[in-house]
């Protein structure tokens, strides 16, 4: 079996992104100041991941993004970036340089909806999908060829390091799935590939993985979330598995979709996946402490859910932070109040009581588990 990881990242923000102007392939806009900061944040987030192969669209905004990412990486400063036109954004023809609202109006005028509508001189969704498929098949053949020339990977080889570094970086949560399992008996990763591309291209690639490869996605993701456009520098990660001989289509599993926690300005701790994690429906082990944090339901909620292993029920978000101090993790959140609990029955009574009293107040409740040698 040959396995490799594929990390796909959208470019950073441009001025036209912010103004909702369609760029496509014909408008080669550079990153804005915000876009450069996003690329640097993505690089810091991925600084401990050793990418064996790096590819990028040959448009300016992706070139600048991949440079910003690799500049922060501990291992990839000297890596050669392969710029490939197959990774370009969808071609929007006559709509390029125009506001998104005009594209929607053009589609409405002929009784169609975006993104299925193809403007004059533009690229159809099928053409975009075939372009993505062509690049993906090229990539698979490249990895298989290189893997066949190397010795058999073992759990002590660098391939295992590739996998463990990814497992420490990408958390589990609503947008993530548990894929990195050192106890699975599977061989280590033969390669870790970074691809920097564009929003419509990434959405098309997700569709290809979903419909053609029957990729396994996190069960909590809805269809609309899978078809939404990635935010700037949003990250989607796949693990591809080829059976011995490398013939036929690979099996694919998605680790996360459009991850954007790095944009909050903090790099998450190395996450520890345990069988007692609440996402599995199990009780928290008695050796874990339970801490409640109150906060107003504002933009902070997205920051919290991006940085923890979490499961949510309405206004309740269940998170785990097994390594980092909670006071450090929540340092940017105001009006915090912590309470230590040791009774599961009392805890769930408290949740119900809290929701009854605060359902109309706009407050939220976060339950945070962390591994501790002694009670909180």
UniProtKB/TrEMBL annotation:
This is Fructose-2,6-bisphosphatase TIGAR. It holds the Pfam family His_Phos_1. It is found in: Cytoplasm; Mitochondrion; Nucleus. Interacts with HK2; the interaction increases hexokinase HK2 activity in a hypoxia- and HIF1A-dependent manner, resulting in the regulation of mitochondrial membrane potential, thus increasing NADPH production and decreasing intracellular ROS levels. Substrate binds at residues 10-17, 61, 89-92. GO terms for biological process: apoptotic process; autophagy; negative regulation of glycolytic process; positive regulation of nucleobase-containing compound metabolic process; positive regulation of phosphate metabolic process; regulation of pentose-phosphate shunt; regulation of programmed cell death; response to stress. GO terms for molecular function: fructose-2,6-bisphosphate 2-phosphatase activity. Gene3D superfamilies: Phosphoglycerate mutase-like. It catalyses: beta-D-fructose 2,6-bisphosphate + H2O = beta-D-fructose 6-phosphate + phosphate. Keywords: Apoptosis, Autophagy, Cytoplasm, Hydrolase, Mitochondrion, Nucleus. It comes from Capra hircus (Goat). Its EC number is 3.1.3.46. InterPro entries: His_Pase_superF_clade-1, His_PPase_superfam, PG/BPGM_mutase_AS, Phosphoglycerate_Mutase. The active site is at residues 11, 89. Its main location: cytoplasm. SMART domains: PGAM (SM00855). Transmembrane segments: none annotated. GO terms for cellular component: cytosol; mitochondrion; nucleus. Belongs to the phosphoglycerate mutase family. PANTHER family: FRUCTOSE-2,6-BISPHOSPHATASE TIGAR.
